[in-house]
Amino acid sequence: MSDIRTPPALSDEELAALDAHWRAANYLAVGQIYLMANPLLSRPLTPEDIKPRLLGHWGTSPGLNLVHTHLNRVVKDRGVEALCVWGPGHGGPAVLANSWLEGSYSETYPDVPRTTEGMGRLFKQFSFPGGVPSHVAPETPGSIHEGGELGYALTHAYGAAFDHPGLLVTCVIGDGEAETGPLAASWHANKFLDPVHDGAVLPVLHLNGYKIANPTVLARLPEDELDQLLRGYGHDPLYVTGDDPATVHRAMAAAMDTAVERIAAHQRAAREDGATERPRWPMIVLRTPKGWTGPKEVDGLPVENTWRSHQVPLSGVRDNPEHLRQLEDWLRSYRPEELFDADGRPTEQVLACVPEGTARLGSTPYANGGLLLRDLPVPALEDHAVRVDKPGSASHSPTQVLGGLLADIMAATAERRDFRVVGPDETASNRLQDLYRATGKAWQAQTLPTDEHLARDGRVMEVLSEHLCQGWLEGYLLTGRHGLFSSYEAFAHIVDSMVNQHIKWLRTSRRLPWRRPIASLNYLLTSHVWRQDHNGFSHQDPGFVDHILNKSPEVVRVYLPPDANTLLSVADHALRSRDYVNVIVAGKQPTFDWLTMEEARAHCARGAGAWEWAGTEDGSREPDVVLGCAGDVPTQEVLAAADLIRRHLPELAVRVVNVVDIARMQPHEEHPHGMTDAEYDALFTRDKPVIFAYHGYPWLIHRLAYRRTGHANLHVRGYKEEGTTTTPFDMVVRNDLDRYRLVMDVIDRVPGLGVRAVAVRQAMADVRTRHHAWIREHGVDLPEVEEWSWGG
């Protein structure tokens, strides 16, 4: 075990300065939780000085302040470029306090200066109406991590370190957070960190012993068991333990120095000496009391070093004179008169360890990634477009065509290294294998002769943890780079909660003028619900789209390109965009090519439009029925239905409408991409039947269009939880999305047609019956289905 003892690393003067900074940060953290006036205690506290609602988290703040103080020293003394990810995000008071002390907060928010008045504003605004959140949030300078939901700190830290070779990313992990599944998987990220091209991550596991009301698992492990666990994850842990500030300061300084020197040695060995053995990276285990330096006992009950210090240790300050006295004693224990001058400015001693300019943790450009972002070199789409002489005359795998485009981007960014593709073991399965022409798969662990495409400097990231993929990409984007997340559609739900947080981050950031736009988070969802040739019911869930469309309309976009060229057009737009979450759903199996590249661009720009070549309108009157579709398989079924109607009901005027941008179905008042009522009525008519074949759950279309004039005439077919391992066409039959069912819907809903077309309807039903018997005997779809092509 690499225990760090107390070496004579710090002089008494350095120790005093570090302790002064730490005490100042602790004072400011307590003040934010409690005070709305009298910030420097220029007079005795009164109940009127106390906030009416006491919110915030004290328990983790002293430990976070200690890490921030010592990171300042390392950055200033060693010239290290640093970023910190604060996992215990409820420790907002600590990070805000340090940002204010170093001056970055006042530069970002000039109305909160480093004065007595500014300190008072800092205190009052915390968790106060019209103020700032209690978490480390987008409003917090120096932050890339919203701490409201635990589990993602370490994966964000690694995402930030990838392709930033000069960056040290310190990640503070709370021992409550360490109990989550995503954090447990994140320990494996060190097997993907390239010491040549990537920066370093220094995890600081902060064991203060407690969550809200319970002890934490790792804090209660015997030390040898904890050490074995962390070494098993591939780390070389350094231990800092104690409750005496001077002892802990000396130990923490020694641990930080040792960790930084070991990191530098590993990087030199790889970059200068060609070492290829995976480094055993250092980490720090910091064990200090929860609520350290706060009240030791309140109302006869122990508080410091217990779960009672987690949030607000003294809860009755406005009404209980004894609590008010304890609060004043607590605040004065930091000796604020030594830390701030008469005007409220931090003293020289407090600022002695603080770096300057963009070296400050609150001012680093790595935490405002838009400052570092460069346009992505997306090649001309014509270089990858498929030739379409006429609609449906050929077929291609859309994602395989896209893979060629992504490979070109990967090659064009080979030197600058600011583009990555992540996914859970599915890059080749999703037909994106052309990427391997330009890069390998990142891998630092053991390799065998049978392995393919593994590379220490690879920029395709595959690991069977969607949480890790999501977190890596978020950290990568937030620090100024570009990327794409490729996943099986059904399992994108695993990151529902993570994408929630990222969307909230983007929405808040858009309202902060100092936050520069970052590259969008782009999902490619394939292996989708309609093609389950060998996976089955477990792999069928198109509901990620529903989840996304519930979120902030200014941030979320959902696209369902029906063929290869429309996928290229949508991907081009998504990869160039900023501050969005783009969800693209596209199949990997060969699909008919419907549109030329020029047509695809125009269609995707509209987001929804009538395909005149597919319908039977003559322009002299409104159509009798509208066949709408969104998604590749629904589009094919609608076109097959239109073909059947053309042959069996030639007198019927049919309009075919394809929707690529699903938000177009919403009113424009509810989504920036939504159609006006006039646009919607012109496309779908006000009173004609609309039979809509949709990729996902049908009620989503109803929800998006419920306010439209013609909603009563809208009939949606989609996935309704029917499926198994079966033939491609059987999936659509099981869910009543097939071409024959759609023709039957037309007959049932066009006024007067049911009586005249009874024979046609019966013929359609007969094919469905024959289909069921056929696939059970032959194991493949009906010949007229397998061999169908567009004949219009």
From TrEMBL:
PROSITE patterns membership: PHOSPHOKETOLASE_1, PHOSPHOKETOLASE_2
CDD domains, alphabetized: TPP_PK
Domain Xylulose 5-phosphate/Fructose 6-phosphate phosphoketolase C-terminal: 588-790
SUPFAM superfamilies reported in the protein's UniProt record: Thiamin diphosphate-binding fold (THDP-binding)
Keywords, alphabetical: Lyase, Thiamine pyrophosphate
Chain ranges of the Xylulose 5-phosphate/Fructose 6-phosphate phosphoketolase N-terminal domain: 10-371
One GO-annotated biological process of the protein: carbohydrate metabolic process
EC number: 4.1.2.-
Pfam families documented for this protein: XFP, XFP_C, XFP_N
Major enzyme class: lyase
Top-rank lineage group of the source organism: Bacteria
Annotated coiled-coil segments of the chain: none
Family statement: Belongs to the XFP family.
UniProt cross-references to HAMAP family, sorted A to Z: Phosphoketolase (MF_01403)
Name of the protein in its database record: Probable phosphoketolase
Organism this protein belongs to: Streptomyces arboris
